[in-house]
Predict the 3D structure of the following.
Amino acid sequence: MILLKRISLWLALAGMAFTVWVLMAARQKEPMPPPVEPPPQSPYESTVAASGIIEAANENVRIAPPVGGLIIKVFVVVGDQVAEGAPLLQLDDRELRAQLGVREAAIPPTQARIDEQRHRLEDLEVQYKRLQAVHDRRAISEDDVKRTWYAMEANKRVLVRNVADLEQAIAQRDETKLLLERLTVRAPRTGTILQVNVRAGEYAVVGATDPLVLLGDMQTLQVRADVDEVNAPLVKAGAPGVAYLKGSTTQSIPLQFARIEPYIVPKKSLTGDNTERVDTRVLQIIYRFERPTFPVYAGQQVDVFIERDTEPPKDK
């Protein structure tokens, strides 16, 4: 009996010790694992940090339809190099083609009537000149002269009306041709197709959020750096900068100052950091750079470091 009591006591003490060890182990925090890639370091003694995005130097063109309509053909795919004026999309043009046929068919009859009226007018003018050339007025009837003159004037009015009808028919035909040509959406400049957000058979809506086609010049790239409005006074025009791709801190991209867009705008390019404020307003600074040996792509986010202006303000 005494042996059982001693065993129970030792088991209780062992349970208490195990409980204390578990609680102490649970309170201990494991050290944070080292980052896969160390954070980028600024090469400048004093710097202004910013987030940036790589984009085409001439900025991307968001291709939109001139009118709403059914898309019957898409001529390009992502990655295509297109020249200025190259067709990108074809909207449904069957109605306008039928209208063009009707208006083209109306031109020849009007032209034929004009030719007939001109021949008739020429004959009447010849008759009237012959009547006027008769010296002996007793040889001709005055009524014949007046009837010929009235017929000639009436024919002139009809001819003018027919010419106006012909001009209107031609103008209507040309208008339909222009509207028909507009349904073929063409590239406004030379560039690379970055996105195609529509397929044949879909309906193109005017004012849609996503562009039908995104066009950009990938030969020359630039970085659009967003500097927080609080740090905007610290940036001086012409200040050099350097950029690092996300997740790559060993390969830097030297930046050449291009311009400052002086209007502060709400921040749109989000980095995904959980501490990032979405109501921040930023000053956008444009930097050019030579294409590096490693691949970079439009739309890629970068960490930007701009040399800070350390000169003290001059007293007036």
